[in-house]
Design goal:
This protein is an all-alpha fold and about 170 residues long. It contains four helices and no strands. It has helices spanning about 5-35, 50-85, 105-145, 150-170. Helix 1 runs antiparallel to helix 2 (about 50-85) and helix 3 (about 105-145) runs antiparallel to helix 4. It starts with a helix and ends with a helix.
Length: about 170
């Protein structure tokens, strides 16, 4: 017997969400490698921008976008499942807890999906915080003259960003 269409549609959203999570992890790893470089605050382009710092900020921004997309796809999969597993597709099941008696397997999958979304939300908060720290470091580097000694403050921001990224990757 063929899978119901809603299971195929929900499954496709979950495959996409997984791919986005993998990409987010990749971009966070790349950002951390940039930030761990000894040349982080020594490498500038012709315009005076910190090349590795800019790269790290771009990577963290990409990771944030991918995490957000993953959570959106997970939410879509849940809505499709709640609509599809009900007795009438135009009348969705009100909540995951009401699925338990009707289809234990679907209930278990939806419960795990809700946990995954919560984990994604918990990863997004430090990812956004890391982006804020990197933005602050970029701002300080671009606005303060070298004579003002911005390196110590920038290093503090970079360390804070690294701590946030490590919290997500661990």
């Amino acid at each position: 017997m063929a899978e119901p269409r809603w299971k195929t549609a929900a499954g496709a959203r979950l495959v996409s969400a997984y791919g986005y999570c993998v990409r987010a992890r990749h971009y966070l790893g790349a950002a951390l490698r940039d930030l761990e470089s000894k040349e982080l605050l020594d490498t500038r382009d012709a315009a005076g921008r910190y090349v590795l710092l800019d790269s790290a900020a771009t990577n963290v921004g990409q990771a944030s976008s991918f995490l957000s997309a993953a959570m959106g796809h997970m939410a879509a999969a849940e809505l499709i499942a709640l609509r599809g597993c009900g007795p009438v597709p135009t009348d969705p099941v009100a909540s995951v807890s009401r699925v338990r008696d009707a289809d234990h397997g679907v209930w278990l999958a939806l419960t795990r999906l809700q946990d995954a979304r919560e984990y994604g939300r918990q990863a997004l908060v430090p990812t956004e915080a890391a982006f804020g720290h990197l933005w602050a470091a970029q701002f300080i580097g671009a606005r303060l003259p070298p004579a003002a000694g911005p390196d110590a403050v920038m290093e503090d921001q970079v360390r804070a960003a690294m701590d946030q990224i490590r919290a997500v990757l661990d």
